[in-house]
Amino acid sequence: MAKNKTDSYFNGDSPERVALVKLMTDKDERSAMASLDELWRLTETAGGEVAARVIQSKDRPDPATYIGSGKVRELRELCLNAEITLVVFDCELSPSQIKNLEDILGNDIRVIDRSMLILDIFALHAASGEGKLQVELAQLKYTVPRLIGKGRELSRQGGSASIAARGPGESKLETDRRYIKRRIASLEAQIEEMAKNRRTQRAQRDKSGLKRITIAGYTNAGKSTLMNYLTGAGILAEDKLFATLDPTTRRLRLPSGKTALLTDTVGFIRNLPHHLIKAFASTLDEVRYADIILMLTDASDSECLSHAEVTRELLSQLGADGKKVLYVLNKCDVSENVEEAAFKAALSSEPGDVFRISSLTGQGIPELLLRIDEIVS
Ligand SMILES: Nc1nc2c(ncn2[C@@H]2O[C@H](COP(=O)(O)OP(=O)(O)OP(=O)(O)O)[C@@H](O)[C@H]2O)c(=O)[nH]1
Ligand SMILES: [Mg+2]
User: Distance between CA atoms of 165 and 6, rounded to whole angstroms?
Assistant: First the structure.
């Protein structure tokens, strides 16, 4: 089962030492570095310590080993010298690529890809029953086929499961394909049942006639901090990726005295694993059923514009086109540098007003609330 925060990796042994590997196919060094920085943060969030970064320049991925077998042998030397036991690739690897890589790297060095790492963080942070089932489903569909057949145990009970070994599975039985098939069917049925409940709750909320406002944005943009500022919801907000997985809805009092419903939800990231989107469909539906979306972006992040672009694109995929979206630049107590024109260009749509706020100090929030009030009225 997915582990929770209290028995996380940090409580046991020292953090696992990790090498990050990136294949650069287009000579775009800046974006390669930004992508590696993000992978670094993901690794730390999962409880790893980054000990090395490796960039390989190549026209296209090697079908067998992704970076080429010569480079993998170099990587092996590096790992042995630096006591690195886990290699994270900044891409999606096929099960056979992982197998080939581990064959060259040797027994004590494990290989995972970016999606497995993200799923691992989700497993670590899942708190509700629904969240845990959703993560387990995504892991069974993505991670497990990549780990299977190596005699590797998928999860160790108690203490310190290592990165990407957390999640479903406690016995050898669980690596059995038939078992996995049955478990997937059962998870899908349970998740559908919970989705039904969610739909009923939504229908009840609809009867109340209150407008629904959903905060959406890249992970770590400050969504939960804004939710807490506006409603005192007391949601965990911290400088980690994917701190929030479960949606929370609270009543929001507007300046006119009217009430609306405000929802905080799971964050986005570029190349969000496909199976995760499918498994979290009912959670992500909060976007589809919103009357107003507050698209929050961290203005202090050097990747602010690309985050806005990714978020806009995912919102569109999730069925938010045609909805009223308010674009909000957050953390303006730290940085006011983002130019409105560049921000609008990144969104490739005409976003109307852009609000600049700080969810920590409250600056800019009265203006945002007045605008919401106007729309609700
Ligand atoms: N300086 C500053 N920090 C902020 C602001 N808003 C949020 N933060 C910080 O940014 C970090 C992330 O905030 P969260 O509210 O957890 O972000 P989130 O969007 O909910 O993130 P996930 O749930 O992980 O996707 C925390 O350390 C917050 O204290 C702000 O306006 N200014
Ligand atoms: Mg959050």
Answer: 17
CATH topology of domain 208-376: Rossmann fold (3.40.50)
The residue to mutate among 224, 225, 310, 368, having the most atoms of ligand 1 within 8 angstroms of its beta carbon, is 225
Per-residue pLDDT tens over the stretch 71-128: 999 999 999 999 999 999 999 999 999 999 999 999 889 999 999 999 999 999 998 9
Which tokens is 5 given? 């925060």
Query: What pTM value is reported for the model?
Result: 0.89
Per-residue pLDDT of 296-316, as tens digits, reads 999 999 999 999 999 999 999
From the list 286, 305, 296, 351, the residue with the least C-alpha distance to 324 is 351
Nearest CA to ligand 1 atom 7: 222
Q: Which two tokens stand for residue 283?
A: 């959670």
Please state which architecture CATH assigns to domain 5-125. Answer: 3-Layer(aba) Sandwich (3.40)
Give 303-309's long-range contacts (Cβ < 8 A, gap of 24+): 303/34, 303/38, 304/329, 304/338, 304/343, 305/338, 305/342, 305/343, 305/346, 306/34, 306/270, 306/346, 307/217, 307/218, 307/221, 308/218, 308/343, 308/346, 308/347, 309/346, 309/347, 309/348
Q: Is the CB of 167 under 6 A from ligand 1?
A: no
Domain ranges of the chain: 5-125, 129-158+171-201, 208-376
**Alpha carbons 39 and 53: distance in angstroms, whole number:** 10
pLDDT attached to residue 177? 78
Q: Which structure tokens are listed for 172?
A: 């050898």
pLDDT tens digit sequence for 21-34 = 999 988 888 889 99
5-125 and 208-376 have identical folds: yes
Give the number of the atom of ligand 1 that is nearest the alpha carbon of residue 219.
25
Contact status, residue 223 vs residue 243, Cβ threshold 8 Å: no
Q: What is the pLDDT of residue 168?
A: 54
At 65, is the secondary structure helix, strand, or coil? coil
Rounded CA-CA distance 270/313 in Å is 10
- In this structure, the residue with its CA closest to atom 16 of ligand 1 is 237
